[in-house]
Amino acid sequence: MASGTVSPTLAVFERHLVLYRRLWQASVFSSFVLPLLFLLSIGVGVGGYVGSIEGVDYLAWIVPGVLASTVFSLALGESTYPVFGDFKWVRAYHAMRAAPVGPSHMVYGHLLYMVFRAEVATVVFLLVVAFFGGLRSPWALATPLVSALLAVATAAPVTAFSASIENDNYFTVVFRFVQIPATLLAGVFFPVTQLPEVLRPFAYASPLWHAVEMCRAATLGRDTPWPLAVHVGVLVVFAALGTVLSVRAYRRRLER
Questions:
Q1: What is the DSSP string of 144-182?
Q2: How would residue 43 be classed by pLDDT, with cut points 50, 70 and 90?
Q3: With contact defined as beta carbons under 8 Å apart, do 38 and 134 qualify?
């Protein structure tokens, strides 16, 4: 049973890697260069005016937020048009279905690829930030684990949505009313406690906020605002529920 489950999943993962090897240049700016430029302009430039937050200079404080938001945006972007396109335009998933590859293998392979992309982006980001003194604790080495969990927690629900729609215009709604508000309200640029109380529940419900706080605790060497198990649990729920819904959406789409 193991070989029947793992082998098709790895085949789907390999397919994504082959495509990435051919198109990786297109993602360099958005995945690596842009976050670093943003970090330097905001963390160093604006940070000179902000000073410190919670007793930490602004550059070190914003590093984990930019890291987590980069992974969040990456996972969201790679689970919208690419998934929809493989159903609607390229019909790659239909071709896979003709082979011994089931809906669950397609979903697992896609999520495994999301973890790979998140890990590469995280490691490169940490290496560069370390030269600017943006890491204050050896626990920063734990951030790739947070990034992997965030990538799945983000990509799985969005993948389920992308596999369920017939018109790509819906993605405008996702980017405008999910990505942008989540990035602004999730403690990336300022503490959530500075938000009006009516908006704080929206931040707490976002998987991005939980990842930001875990990354911040790791890079600064301090405790998380909520128990660590709660932060992890929220991301696990998003990941597990999203995965189940994705497999169901893939199966329904392929049976039409």
A1: HHHHHHHHHHHHHHHHHHHTT-S-TTHHHHHIIIIIHHH
A2: low
A3: no
